[in-house]
Design brief:
Helices cover 23% and strands 37% of the residues. The chain is of the alpha+beta class. The chain has 2 domains: 2-67, no CATH class; 111-183, no CATH class. The chain is globular. The relative contact order is 0.12. Mean pLDDT is 81; it is low at 15-19.
């Protein structure tokens, strides 16, 4: 896994996690102009995409640097944490005292991400940002209209049925079950 980190000056750096090789990541810059969404593909060239992103960031509305085929984790502060204990002597007896929190490995995102999800923000693993996913009553895939409701990212149009979205947003799995149950009720009895 990799993460995109933002520095104090607003710069972005690609940081490797868990020794994963993401040399096959395809990069794209997306921005809004009027009522249309424009995009420019950069293929495997992250540095070119980052340069172009920095160049038009202040000039255009809704500029996003996104990866088209690789998902990225949320920041570590949203991962599940477990209490960190230390043994201390109190009046001659050893006692276990909580001194802080540490990140739980293997990485899971349930408790802290559920709190963020309930506020309406979902982690988009391809835009590498928190977004407000929008409910779409139907979707179109390769010219075929599907009457399956889905929550979608407003920028990259990824739905809550994507495996990476479900992995990082625990509420997506819950909503998938509710949406499927609603679809079954509409069919009626046979």
């Amino acid at each position: 896994m990799c993460t995109i980190t933002r520095g104090k000056e607003g710069t972005i750096a690609l940081v490797r996690r868990h020794d994963a090789d993401h040399s096959h990541a395809l990069w794209q810059v997306v921005w809004e102009k009027g009522d249309y969404v424009h995009s420019k593909d950069f293929g495997l060239y992250f540095s070119d995409a980052l340069t172009f992103y920095d160049k038009i960031k202040g000039k255009r509305k809704g500029v996003t640097l996104r990866c088209k085929n690789v998902s990225f984790e949320p920041p570590l502060k949203y991962a599940d944490h477990v209490p960190l204990y230390k043994m201390k002597r109190v009046r001659g007896l050893k006692k276990k005292v909580q001194v802080g929190w540490k990140v739980k490995y293997p990485l899971t995102y349930t408790v802290r991400m559920m709190l963020v999800n309930r506020r309406g923000l979902w982690w988009c693993p391809y835009c590498i940002k928190f977004r407000r996913f929008e409910l779409h009553k139907w979707s179109e895939i390769e010219g075929i209209r599907m009457d399956q409701p889905a929550y979608r990212c407003p920028t990259c149009e990824i739905s809550n049925y994507d495996g990476s979205v479900k992995r990082f947003n625990p509420i997506a799995a819950v909503l998938e079950m509710k949406l499927r149950r609603r679809r079954r009720k509409k069919r009626g009895r046979r």
